[in-house]
């Protein structure tokens, strides 16, 4: 919801892959959700992922792009994620992750 509103706003669909470890399990349809525990916080529905995908695995969501960054919010004081450009097998950070200190810096107190 805060870092990827496009699926809930207008049904954007994404390719999702598990990265960082190999699995020999068969693929199965899975729903990938965000971290807000809200009914609209769904990133992808019925995407093929290994049957043994588990908490802590890293999932790559391809082509979320600049639109997500410009539409992102700090809903529930969640910082926005980094923006990483991947081309020719190389990854480059172009926008750093928003940290709690970034969010709290705007607070002036009572």
Structure description:
It comes from Nonomuraea mangrovi. Residues 1-65 form the Orn/DAP/Arg decarboxylase 2 C-terminal domain. Its cofactor is pyridoxal 5'-phosphate. Keywords: Pyridoxal phosphate. It is built from three helices and six strands. The protein is globular and about 55 Å long. The protein starts with 5 loop residues before the first helix and ends in a 6-residue tail after the last helix. It has one domain (6-104): Lyase, Ornithine Decarboxylase, Chain A, domain 1, CATH 2.40.37. It has 110 residues and is an alpha+beta fold. Helices cover 15% and strands 32% of the residues.
Quote the average pLDDT.
88
Structural class: alpha+beta
Rg calc: 16 Å
Mind summarizing the main beta sheet?
2 strands, antiparallel
Strand content: 25-35%
The total domain count is 1
Q: Approximately how much helix is present in the residues?
A: 10-25%
Shape: globular
In which order are the strands of the major sheet placed? 1-4
Tell me the series of helices and strands, N- to C-terminal. Answer: HEEEEHEEH
- CATH hierarchy, class: Mainly Beta
Please identify the oligomeric state.
Answer: single chain
In the CATH hierarchy, the architecture is Beta Barrel
Low-confidence stretches: none
Cofactor: pyridoxal 5'-phosphate
Protein name: Orn/DAP/Arg decarboxylase 2 C-terminal domain-containing protein
Keywords: Pyridoxal phosphate
Pfam family, one: Orn_DAP_Arg_deC
Throw out a few tags for this protein.
two-stranded antiparallel sheet, 3 helices, 6 strands, alpha+beta, globular, single chain, 110 residues, Lyase, Ornithine Decarboxylase, Chain A, domain 1
